[in-house]
Amino acid sequence: MQAYPIKFAPILKEKIWGGEKLSQILNKKTDLKNVGESWEISGVQDNISTVANGLYKGTSLNDLIKTHKSKFLGQQNIDVFGENFPLLIKFLDAKTNLSVQVHPDDKMAKTQHNSFGKTEMWYIMNSDDDAEIVLGLKDNDLDKNVLSAINATNVNDIFNTEKVKQGDSYFIPAGKIHAIGAGVLAAEIQQTSDITYRVYDWDRIDDAGKQRELHTDAAIKATKSFVSNGKSNYQLEANKTSNLVDCDFFTTNIFEIQANQKREYNHLDSFVIFMCVEGTAEVTVNNLTETVAMGETILVPANTDSVEFNSAGAKLLEIYI
């Protein structure tokens, strides 16, 4: 397989809670309104990403995996996931609150949906003043059955909220109640799964005058208690990586580039993804260079030995398994 910095065509999603930041701040080209998500790299059925540049332009993600297997994914990922891409990479813009929701773990998802579970993380790229997220229950001893009786009068007593700002990062394991709040633009890394159990949708109605379906019984079964709010405690250091999340499903570091840098990846048995969350950088593999700007994503296949970076000031999320 020819290793080079691979870009994929974003898959944009209209959402009832979406806004304009994906186009206005991240420069996503679209005529859609209320765009809430940009799926940067997806192996989700009916939403398979397509290469947008270079030798493999026009090739689907699935075809890359079928043709190149371990050279693309890494042998350990082939052993665990077969020919399924294991991560879903997104940017999200919440003009209004997302529904309060929870995702099943692998065991529940396999039993109920023949799917992987959904553990995820967020990196806050931009936020309005006083923007918040929902993370967990306010009281971990609270009877989970209260989730069946949430309304506008008691919602603030049930869910824990956190004020957020640019640069904050949160880990959301499967089973944790959560929601991105109005005014937040975020990068999201998650397991390949589109299973969401809505707990509360702020009593809003869609264009047809109907409320969206809730999944209360499933949510009660999926919900778990967590002591930590999941916020990453990290220190940025120029031209070095700092770890944000290291879990069974993915590792995410933040890499602040302020000069020419070369990083070795031949010790990894995995593809590596770079999400640009600030600034612009040049990414070079085998003398093939792509520019990645804020809101863009690049993947280098598992047979990549080293990557060169050049920027006067950029921040990249570095993601691998």
Assembly level? single chain
Shape: globular
Number of strands: 21
The top level CATH class name of the largest domain: Mainly Beta
Mean pLDDT: 95
CATH superfamily of the largest domain: Jelly Rolls
Largest sheet: 8 strands, antiparallel
**Total tally of structural domains:** 2
CATH topology (level 3) name of the largest domain: Jelly Rolls
What Rg do the Cα atoms give?
A: 19 Å
Topology order in helix (H) and strand (E) letters: EHEEEHHHEEHEEHEEEEEHEEEEEEEE
Distance between the termini: 20 Å
Helix content: 10-25%
Indicate the low-confidence ranges by residue numbers. Answer: none
Q: In percent terms, what proportion of residues is strand?
A: 35-45%
CATH 2nd-level architecture of the largest domain: Sandwich
By DSSP (H or I, 4+ residues per run), the number of helices equals 7
The helix-and-strand class reads: mainly beta
GO molecular function: isomerase activity
Keywords: Isomerase, Metal-binding, Zinc
Pfam families: MPI_cupin_dom, PMI_typeI_cat
Protein name: Phosphohexomutase
Short description:
The chain has helices spanning 21-24, 61-68, 70-73, 75-81, 106-113, 155-158, 216-222; strands at residues 11-19, 35-41, 43-44, 47-48, 87-94, 100-102, 120-127, 132-137, 159-163, 169-172, 178-180, 184-191, 197-200, 241-246, 251-257, 261-264, 272-285, 288-293, 297-300, 306-310, 314-320. It has 321 residues and is mainly beta.
Your description of this structure?
By secondary structure, this protein is mostly beta strands. It has 2 domains: 11-222, Jelly Rolls, CATH 2.60.120.10; 241-320, Sandwich (Jelly Rolls), CATH 2.60.120.10. 13% of the residues lie in helices and 38% in strands. It is built from 7 helices and 21 strands. The strands form 5 sheets. Strands 14, 15, 16, 17, 18, 19, 20 and 21 form an 8-stranded antiparallel sheet that branches. A 6-stranded antiparallel sheet has the order 1-2-5-12-7-10. The longest helix is centred in the first third of the chain and has 8 residues, at 61-68. The chain is globular. It starts with 10 loop residues before the first strand and ends with a strand.
